Amino acid sequence: AVVAVSxxxxxxxxxxxxxxxxxxxxxxxxxxxxxxxxxxxxxPESFRPFAPISAAEFLAWSSAAPDGVLTAxxxxxxxxxxVHDFVPxxxxxxxxxxxxxxxxxxxxxxxxxxxxxxxxxxALVTWRFWRDRLGADPGAIGRSxxxxxxxxxxxxxxxxxxxxxxxxxxxxxLLMPRVDATPRxxxxxxxVLERLxxxxxxxxxxxxxxxxxxxxxxxxxxxxxxxxxxxxxxxLQPIRQALTEGxxxxxxxxxxxxxALLLIxxxxxxxxxxxxxxxxxxxLAVRRxxxxxxxxxxxxxxxxxxxxxxxxxxxxxLGAYLLLAIMRNLIDGMYMxxxxxxxxxxxxxxxxxxxxxxxxxxxTAVAARAATRASLRSAIADGGHATxxxxxxxxxxxxxxxxxxxxxxxxxxxxxxxxxxxxxxPGLDVDRTAVVSIAPPAGASVADLDALVSVxxxxxxVAAAGGTAHSVLEHAFxxxxxxxxxxxxxxxxGEGFPIxxxxxxxxxxxxxxxxxxxxxxxxxxxxxxxxxxIVVSQGVARRYWQGRRPIGQILTYNDRPFTVVGVVADxxxxxxxxxxxxxxxxxxxxSPRPAVSNLLVRFGTSRNAVTPFVANLxxxxxxxxxxxxEMLTDALGDSIRPRRFSAWLFSAFGxxxxxxxxxxxxxxVAMTTSRRTREIGIRMALGAHATIVTWQIVREQLRSIAxxxxxxxxxxxxxxxxxxxxxxxxxxxxxxxxxxxxxxxxAVATIGALVP
Length: 756
Hints:
By secondary structure, the protein is α+β, with helices and mostly antiparallel strands. The protein has 22 helices and 21 strands.
């Protein structure tokens, strides 16, 4: 039980973090591959890998940076591969495969593919796409997958099975050629990778690149030919560090905790093995007296312990297989581009085997040391039992309780933090509201968008529907297009209250459940005609017009005045665990480029009407592409997926530590108590009551438990500081979490001591 309970979470964690911490990247000489980072000299925290640049910037950098080979790619391109079927893709240039050091497994691009565009793009598909969608058919090369408008892809090859797109948190199923129709374009959509020759120091190449960037920005600013680059510094960052940006600490914490759990399990198993040896003292003494050597005893103990560990490892492997199903669901959408798919592969099996072997060796060594002390004279003198080892058991129990308290407190804090997140008010009507991603037909006008929203609002079961071009619960912050009022500090450097403008259609505010706390909502006609009216959230009203009536105030966009007609509550559009930002709602029709990418739909009575709504919408608008469709309650859960992952991880370790501690104390007390059968019998024969004898044995264990709680409390007081980043509005010394952890651990340890 101890081996299984420790190996199951440890193996699961290794399967998840292996891709981040240990598995080599598939690129040739990955240590010479560097994404370009951009930032500002006076803001070290602003440096970010894969910062987007324009085509004009990339051309200038490529011609002036002789240190290596550069490639630029763009991401976020959803390409049709059938009717109502889109998959995520990326566009690459001709140098892409030379830079990353990989080649397609089958086929590839022709030089002319990078020269012209068309409705059907040549595409390299991933191994998974080829296997799942094309049946791993070699004859699929050259096949075209198009929608009912004749747009789509032509399969020209298959990427290797181990292909990893060099961009974090991005799932890519297709690679298509990047054709620079406007090479002097200023849109900042390109990400840059550079491969350095082995003879070029990284520091020197980074310094020269920074000089090139600075010189280009200066020349473009003086000539006015192109927009000056806002970034005034550049550098190079190792590819693994860039891919794991923002998620390197947690895997190390998880892996270190897994190793600590294995250490506790080995110590526990060793103590149980020694206790078992003490019960076999006479048998071992007789073997030694009859000529058994140390090697003979070692072989016997190795076989016994290996059999136990093999059973435990098999059970732990099965447990890890089941736990990985939960982990995959939590990780999906987080870091799957960085991680290898978390499955039970050869590397995970090797880790499981190595951990099992180390456990067998450690336990056998400890048990063999105790076994070799057996002598026939001492065994006969002691009546067949070993001498007391009370101090050893006392120390073991204290250590296990201390370690378990550290893990239990950590798990209680993270779980308590997650419960606080779930208790947050999102400011939106989430119970019967769904968010649906949609792509209207190409070239749709304002009238077409209005008609689409009207059709959605009149479908069966829909109480209200509205559209927006803004992301909902996807951690996307776009800022505001409106000018900040005079005398109010802006938010350009992350200071002050962040505010963003959200273009919406009629019906959106009703679907979101946003009711005016002051003023009114715009009319449907005002939304349709793009009237210069806006609705602000309470945070914007406080920020811009402290102490003044917001109704009737003016905000300008492109020198056009917009009048505030209403005030609504703040809402959490980014994620449930992120603070509200101020919102300014304005008509989609008033935007220079009207668009709708998401529908917010509130249903009348049913909470499970998403699937029939999508089917009805596709029938009502066959030219529309309908993608993500989920209730806002599910979207809220997805927005805090990293916190759910952390809570599951730390709580699993806490539960495993509790189980190991409880089982370990139970086993130790059971074995040590059995050695005292004669003593207990004499005490009871002389009149001692069973309750008194029981309390005496339990009291001895409670002293070690109390010592373990004291030591564990001191260690936990230091360790919990490392998980502060995973807590939401929860102090690291939260009395409720600490009290619950101590109470549960004390109860488990006491039961473990009381049962025998």
